[in-house]
Amino acid sequence: MLIKRFCPRCGKETNALIKGFCRECFLKGHEILIVDEELKFPRCKSCGKIRIRGAWFSDSPKNLEDFIRSKMKLKEITNEKINIGMAPNNDGSVSVQIGVSGTINEDKIEFEKEILLKPAIVLCDPCMRLVSDYHEAILQVRFGKKPSDEQVESEMARINKMLEYEKKADSLSQAIKTAEATNGFDVYIGSAKAARRIAEALAKRAHTRVVSSSKLMGVDSNTGKANKRFTYCARV
């Protein structure tokens, strides 16, 4: 015969008491999951990346979940399992449902909490630099003779496609500006690494070699590292 158990606070009959109280009354008096009901996450208005623990990452469900977890704390519960569900809203916010299960003093407990994620629109450090025309490299694209408009457009489309790929890892991988040049054009690129890889890809496609050079632009006062601007010339 099962012994009837009652919650001393609300009088509810239950077979599952947690520290002597029903689940509802226990949760009212104990904050197991500590997280703000509204969280603001920094999102770059230019590249769309979000900041987590001081670094910038792509705005993906996994990274948003990592951001939420970085803001959560659990107390008293052991053997915990956390499930996070997200639903985007039309205003750019994200409704989040956090499900928690585990044990407290060998008593099983499950509960849910709803919070709201709101983007705080900012500029990430790389995009802040790009706004001021910051660039680490100049990609020089050269043809055998004066190119047609179609040739220039075709090569520029190829470069932009490669920049989009590079941008996923480095927000500086953007074309700041372009300029006409004799038998070709120049592309000013924020990331020197991206510019070098693109130059190598263009040269490989045309069975030519990249000619590179660099210019000292100054020395970082904090690290003592030399700041250089690179030029990569690819004949296509």
From TrEMBL:
A GO CC term attached to the entry: cytoplasm
Location of the Nmd3 N-terminal domain: 7-235
An annotated Gene Ontology molecular function: ribosomal large subunit binding
Annotated InterPro entries: Nmd3, Nmd3_N
Pfam family name, one: NMD3
Domain of life: Archaea
Name by which UniProt lists this protein: 60S ribosomal export protein NMD3
